[in-house]
Design goal:
alpha+beta
Length: about 425
């Protein structure tokens, strides 16, 4: 079966040709196909049996170019191979927070998986001001399990190096290197600005010596620190939720990189949500305090729960496979100091990467709807300035910021919780 781009009309017949789909659908003549998704990179379809709606799947296919731009921007289809492998590894390590994969084809560059029909994209739900009390518990579990168990802290040296090689993701890492760490910090033609931002606002970021150096240092970490298998794009648009469950989707940017990049992506996105709801709660007819307080509590809980679970996994691994290096009277205490120093360094990385994620969403090509879809451009610019100020301070001072509470206090200084 050679590669071809499937159309809405092709999909029922294609699914009918797959033995795996006969376990899902009882009739391929009554399938309804709907195209969904943002359409930036790939085609995504939801398929259901019109007579038995519970028979349903999601199908995602990569095309050999950046779809939002067209064939003038080629992208290797192998990114789907990476996504399939990443999904399978995440399911192995944390099945309760990853959708089930029914079928994957490297030749057709597509994956067919569980349709999370009773879940919504977290970003859209946060924009609506909805609360998800289990989110911090769930996302911290996912990050701790995957980041720890794909690192040198858990894997033997050969397996780890084989994994690093297996997940080299040239094209999509280059997109991150360009659009997260490079173009937003220069006068680049791909940048998109709110017209209410002034030249002074842009120069505050793009011509500041300490910021430019700090971002360059974070870019170098991203490119060279192959610590763990990352999701690679773990913003709140890559997470689906309901009141009881949380699922992580779309790991097409997966590669081996610094742990703090994934953790920082979650925290940076929630900080932007906090700023945005200074305005959004008013548009919803609510006082901002209660919802914004929940967002701050969630950010703190994500970090605290993640580090607790990560530390527990490390202790369990040491008990299961004791390292001779700690086998002496003070070894247990010294091992604890090692873990504490590791988490301190990981926190610094998390703060720096969160900052880069925030600033790039204001000055770069790709925006977040939380802020970018605020119709009052002056109000949007006010929130964007807060985001840039916090991002700048975080990335420059990442080594001196010692706790998640300090980060939240910085956010509250710019946008008081009232």
């Amino acid at each position: 079966m050679g590669y071809r781009i499937l159309t809405l009309e092709d999909i029922p017949k294609f699914l009918g040709s797959l033995e795996e789909m006969r376990n899902i659908f009882t009739d391929f003549n009554t399938l309804e196909v709907e195209e969904v998704g943002d359409g930036n990179l790939n085609y995504v379809y939801l398929v259901k049996n019109s007579k038995k709606p519970q028979e349903t799947v999601a199908l995602k296919q990569a095309v050999p170019y950046l779809r939002v731009v067209g064939e003038s921007w080629p992208l290797k289809r192998e990114r789907m191979t990476i996504e399939i492998m990443a999904l399978q590894k995440e399911i192995e390590l944390c099945p309760e927070h990853v959708p089930e994969v029914y079928y994957g084809s490297h030749e057709m560059s597509l994956v067919i998986m569980e349709n999370l029909s009773s879940h919504k994209v977290l970003r859209g739900e946060i924009i609506k001001g909805k609360v998800f009390p289990n989110f911090a518990e769930h996302i911290s579990t996912f990050m701790a399990e995957v980041l720890f168990k794909t690192s040198d802290l858990y894997l033997d040296h050969q397996t780890k190096k084989e994994m690093v090689s297996k997940y080299i993701n040239y094209d999509l890492c280059k997109i991150t290197e360009d659009f997260v760490f490079t173009t937003p910090y220069e006068k680049h033609e791909t940048n998109v600005y709110n017209p209410e931002l002034t030249e002074e606002d842009l120069n505050f970021i793009q011509q500041d010596r300490e910021l430019k150096i700090a971002v360059a240092e974070m870019k170098y970490k991203f490119m060279n620190n192959a610590e763990s298998l990352l999701h690679g794009d773990l913003h709140i648009g890559s997470i689906m939720v309901n009141e009881n469950e949380t699922y992580v989707i779309d790991p097409e940017f997966a590669f081996y990189g610094p742990m703090g990049f994934d953790v920082g992506a979650v925290i940076g996105n929630l900080l932007m949500s906090y700023f945005s709801h200074e305005q959004r709660q008013k548009l919803l007819g609510r006082e901002p305090y209660v919802y914004r307080k929940w967002l701050l509590e969630t950010i703190e809980s994500v970090w605290v729960k993640f580090t607790e679970k990560f530390d527990t996994l490390w202790i369990e691994e040491q008990l299961s496979n004791p390292q001779l290096a700690w086998d002496y009277p003070q070894g247990e205490q010294h091992f604890k100091v090692l873990r504490e120093r590791f988490i301190t360094r990981l926190f610094s990385d998390t703060v720096g990467f969160a900052a880069c994620k925030m600033m790039r969403r204001i000055l770069g090509l790709a925006k977040v709807a939380d802020i970018a879809e605020i119709e009052d451009l002056q109000e949007r610019a006010r929130i964007e300035r807060m985001t840039l100020k916090l991002g700048k301070k975080m990335v420059i001072e990442r080594d001196s910021i010692k706790s998640i509470g300090e980060v939240l206090n910085l956010a509250k200084e710019l946008s008081p919780l009232v």
